[in-house]
């Protein structure tokens, strides 16, 4: 009983060991279970959602080419000398203007009407239903009437804004920042403030100096929402020194060259930031009024060997600069700037703003009718441009989704895509007459372009657009390779271990029947257990009385107790390695260093060849005969030379009996 309890303790200790195969299998099974449980989460996280898009509708819009929207305008000529030939000539010139280039096409269907007075109509050519009417007064006669009409229609028939690099890109909101920059106010002629801010926000009346700018701002309200800001800076140094010249009338002057203009704006040291937001639907235009320091005043501009005394230039899509030589005396007192002094700079700023908005035409500032025609023309151009951009953006989305299979289309992209198409359909079906038609049309196409850009630049589109399918393997291989390789290796090792040690474990636990094994493979443990069972039966039969006489049997020795794993390893590996070699038969002696009998399995196991750790002797080198040279001595006799002892030979190295390395 004591032996059996100790064996159970050893067995239980062995089962709780971390080296048990069952514990390894449990760990591997847990890892596999966690991996399988995480597969649905990984699948849902990496699944690409591709919602359907109205591809056919986009293709229909793209098939319309450069004219996704069309409108009809009537040119109504009024003059005493208007006749049918004049109407025909003007109509042909308008049609010829339409076919100049596909992208320059205004997409306008024309109707030309000529009349003499308010009641007498001379001609009516072209379409019947129109939304816009342009009245052209004709004061000439004969062959000069057609050029006069075309000159009046120049804001409508002029070059598109895309060919001019000066106008800004369209934005519903435009912020105008007027900055009074003083090169160095500490040297004198300082300006403390100017009344431009209060004048801009005054609603009662407009100062005459600001009248042209105010008129232009109010005229472009249907296209842009104008916001005004002002600022004053007392120190705005230049990055260069102007060229000094001498003039007979003014003496020493400073001159700017055309190369100096390109580096005039000192952005690192000038604080030109606006207080407004940096939204995508807003553009900021800067207008700088530069006051030079006394040492550089007056500051002029030299262009083509000509001195310009009022320097002013335009910076494309950024703003404008005006150099203001205010003082000619040496006043050092700080003074405020009156609005009367700003009359010339404001006129220059108005012309610069016309060019930046795409409204620079002759006579626009002088005639309200021409300004209104220029604004209506710009409004239609902007609407047509936004419609083209919307169709191009939607077409690009369809092409990308068709070309890239893993490009996702989620619900937000689908919603923005659909809203853009709805806005385009509403803009095309719009049939309001007059100015209301252009206002509503521009609002719809602006919304369409905004939704199309929102769909194209959606984060779900961008993250897959810049992550093609080829990068998937480059990401998954370093991620899952180090995780799966140890797991698969451990599973293969446990499978090999279970396959190799299963017969031994079955024999030790007595789970396998003896009849299933051949006679040569029965282990001593089985015979021992059989003998132990017979001994137990005999002892029990000798104690209990029996009615029959039993024959005496030879007592069988008791079975030895089972060894623990620690004792078995000590018994197996504690002996010299030569004791494990099997030398049962003379024919196996030649394989002494190659086979061994493993206890319990009764089979031969290959062992590696014993290594003696002895270094092999190097090959012998052949020595060539050399002639010994006797040293020449100046002093001494022959007897001393003969009596000199010979040198002892060097001891030979016994490589065979040399010790371990």
UniProtKB/TrEMBL annotation:
Classification via InterPro entries: PtdIno-glycan_biosynth_class_S
Annotated Basic residues bias: 612-624
Any GO BP annotation: attachment of GPI anchor to protein
Disordered: region residues: 506-564, 576-661
Pathway assigned in UniProt: Glycolipid biosynthesis; glycosylphosphatidylinositol-anchor biosynthesis
Keywords of this entry: Endoplasmic reticulum, Glycoprotein, GPI-anchor biosynthesis, Membrane, Transmembrane, Transmembrane helix
Membrane spanning stretches: 21-43
Compartment(s): Endoplasmic reticulum membrane
Main location (coarse class): endoplasmic reticulum
Biased composition regions of type Basic and acidic residues, renumbered to the chain: 625-636
PANTHER family for the chain: GPI TRANSAMIDASE COMPONENT PIG-S (PTHR21072:SF13)
Protein name: Transmembrane protein subunit of the glycosylphosphatidylinositol transamidase complex
Organism: Malassezia pachydermatis
């Amino acid at each position: 009983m004591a032996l059996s309890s100790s064996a159970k303790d050893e067995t239980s200790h062995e089962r709780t060991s971390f080296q048990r195969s069952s514990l390894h299998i449990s760990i591997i099974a847990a890892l596999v279970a966690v991996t399988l449980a995480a597969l649905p989460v990984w699948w849902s996280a990496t699944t690409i959602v591709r919602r359907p898009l109205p591809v056919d509708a986009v293709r229909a819009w793209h098939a319309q080419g450069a004219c996704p929207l069309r409108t009809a305008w009537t040119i109504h000529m009024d003059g005493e000398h208007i006749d049918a030939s004049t109407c025909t000539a003007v109509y042909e010139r308008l049609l010829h203007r339409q076919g100049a280039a596909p992208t320059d096409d205004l997409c306008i269907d024309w109707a030309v009407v000529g009349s003499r007075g308010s009641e007498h109509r001379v001609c009516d050519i072209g379409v019947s239903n129109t939304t816009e009417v342009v009245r052209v007064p004709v004061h000439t006669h004969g062959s000069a009437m057609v050029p006069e009409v075309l000159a009046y229609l120049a804001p409508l028939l002029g070059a598109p804004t895309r060919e001019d690099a000066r106008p800004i890109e369209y934005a519903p909101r435009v912020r105008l920042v007027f900055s009074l920059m003083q090169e160095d106010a500490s040297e004198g002629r300082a300006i403390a403030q100017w009344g431009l801010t209060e004048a801009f926000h005054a609603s009662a009346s407009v100062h005459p100096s600001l009248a042209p700018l105010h008129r232009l701002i109010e005229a472009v309200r249907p296209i842009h929402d104008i916001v005004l800001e002002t600022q004053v800076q007392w120190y705005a140094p230049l990055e260069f020194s102007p060229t000094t010249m001498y003039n007979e009338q003014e003496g020493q002057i400073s001159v700017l060259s055309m190369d100096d203009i390109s580096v005039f704006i000192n952005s690192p040291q000038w604080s030109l930031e606006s207080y407004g937001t940096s939204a995508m639907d807003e553009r900021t235009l800067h207008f700088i009024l530069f006051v030079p320091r006394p040492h550089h005043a007056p500051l002029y501009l030299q262009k083509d060997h000509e001195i310009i005394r009022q320097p002013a230039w335009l910076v494309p899509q950024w703003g404008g600069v005006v150099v203001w030589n205010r003082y000619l005396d040496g006043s050092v007192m700080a003074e405020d700037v009156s609005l009367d002094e700003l009359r010339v700079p404001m006129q220059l700023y108005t012309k610069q703003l016309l060019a930046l908005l795409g409204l620079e035409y002759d006579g626009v500032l002088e005639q309200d009718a021409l300004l209104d025609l220029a604004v209506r023309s710009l409004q239609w151009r902007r609407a047509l441009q936004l419609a083209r951009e919307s169709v191009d953006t939607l077409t690009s989305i369809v092409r990308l989704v068709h070309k890239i299979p893993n490009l996702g289309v989620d619900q937000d992209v689908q919603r923005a895509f659909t809203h853009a198409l709805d806005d385009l359909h509403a803009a095309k079906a719009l049939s309001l007459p007059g100015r209301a038609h252009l206002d509503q049309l521009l609002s719809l196409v602006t919304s369409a372009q905004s939704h199309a850009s929102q769909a194209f630049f959606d984060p779900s589109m961008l993250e897959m657009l810049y992550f093609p399918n080829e990068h998937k393997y480059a990401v998954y291989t370093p991620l899952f390779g180090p995780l799966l390789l140890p797991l698969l290796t451990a599973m293969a090792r446990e499978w090999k271990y279970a396959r190799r040690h299963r017969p031994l474990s079955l024999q030790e636990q007595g789970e396998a029947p003896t009849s299933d094994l051949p006679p040569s493979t029965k282990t001593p443990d089985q015979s021992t257990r059989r003998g132990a069972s017979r001994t137990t039966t005999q002892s029990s039969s000798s104690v209990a009385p029996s009615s029959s006489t039993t024959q005496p049997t030879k007592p069988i020795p008791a079975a030895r107790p089972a060894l623990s794993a620690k004792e078995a390893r000590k018994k197996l590996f504690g002996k010299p390695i030569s004791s494990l070699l099997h030398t049962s038969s003379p024919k196996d002696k030649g394989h002494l260093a190659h086979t061994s009998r493993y206890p319990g399995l009764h089979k031969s196991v290959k062992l590696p060849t014993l290594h003696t750790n002895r270094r092999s002797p190097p090959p012998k080198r052949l020595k060539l005969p050399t002639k010994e040279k006797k040293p020449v001595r100046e002093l001494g006799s022959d007897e001393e030379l003969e009596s000199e002892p010979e040198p002892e030979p060097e001891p030979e190295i016994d490589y065979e009996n040399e010790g371990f390395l």
